[in-house]
Amino acid sequence: RNMSSAGPEGRKKMRECEGLIDSLVYYIQGAIADHEPNDKATENCVCILHNLSYQLEIELPESYAQSIYMQRRNISSNDKTPGCFGTRSRKVKEKQQDTPLPEEKSNPKGVESLWHSTLIRIYLSLIAKSTRNYTQEASLGALQNLTAGTGPMPFAVARTVVQKANGLPSIRAMLHVSHPAVKKTAVSLLRNLSRNTSLQSDIAREVLPDLVSVLPECVPGSDIACETTASICYTLFNLTQSSSHNARLLLSAHGLPKVIAISMNDSNTFSKASRAASVLLYSLWSHTDLHSAYKK
């Protein structure tokens, strides 16, 4: 687990180590089958897989890249300080293009397992069944990493999470946990998922009211809560930007007073949360058919 945080070279060596990833997946599958999703070894395994999925899209060997991608995309990224959480997970540009999806292998080996639907379902199962915060956070963070790029692989993972594996209910439940880091990672994952235009109606229907309900009444004091609030606002921005229906859903969930209050920053520094809320307000106003409803 410690070594998997050692940066790009460490990740590369571990991904290439024959049998390592397969063994980690095998262990977690056994723990879930035995109804023991809370043991420490499972947490360690998931944290390792979480770290090995970091920047996976741009660190794949060229041979994989050619077989997976119909078109290779150049993605600029900043590798930050290694660590099991936080910087291991990536947020990306808000817009994601729909591209042809790669064929999935029925029996993946090694690094191929990292983005396979089998492991995606394992993460979702751990999110739902484990009560260990680190295990939940690492599972959410791994899915956040896998949905962070702009090529076919992240899009395929997002579609599996939302449509094939019905993962939104499990992720939605994490919005209401008390552990701030778990909540933050769940919101960051939803922010990634919400960039996919073909998934936005499903996401809005399942989680938009919950996102509004966990918005604070004003700019929160702590950094992690402020960052979570900003992510919620950007997720709502993605869901409502081109959908008047979703904007009306936000309105009926009593989200507008909260967004307005968050956008009004009393301190000298313009916080991330206030900026995100202002961007969301500006976007909501573009739905001219809702102006009279807004004014009421």
List keywords for this structure.
296 residues; mainly alpha; Leucine-rich Repeat Variant; elongated
Describe this entry's structure for a reader.
The chain is mainly α. 60% of the residues lie in helices and 0% in strands. It has helices at residues 8-16, 20-33, 40-52, 56-59, 62-68, 117-129, 133-146, 152-164, 168-174, 180-193, 200-214, 223-240, 244-252, 256-263, 272-285, 291-295. The longest helix has 18 residues, at 223-240. The model is unreliable at 70-83 and 94-101 (pLDDT under 50).
List the helices and strands and how they pair.
Elements: H1 8-16, H2 20-33, H3 40-52, H4 56-59, H5 62-68, H6 117-129, H7 133-146, H8 152-164, H9 168-174, H10 180-193, H11 200-214, H12 223-240, H13 244-252, H14 256-263, H15 272-285, H16 291-295
Helix pairs in contact: 2-3, 2-6, 3-7, 6-7, 6-9, 7-10, 10-12, 11-12, 12-15, 14-15
CATH domain class of the largest domain: Mainly Alpha
Radius of gyration from CA coordinates: 19 Å
User: What's the CATH topology name of the largest domain?
Assistant: Leucine-rich Repeat Variant
The secondary structure category is mainly alpha
Number of strands: 0
Distance between the termini: 54 Å
Order of helices and strands: HHHHHHHHHHHHHHHH
Give the tally of structural domains: 2
What portion of residues belong to β-strands?
Answer: under 5%
Task: Give the overall shape, derived from the CA principal axes.
Answer: elongated
Overall helicity: 55-70%
Which CATH architecture of the largest domain?
A: Alpha Horseshoe
Mean pLDDT: 87
The number of helical runs is 16
Largest sheet: none
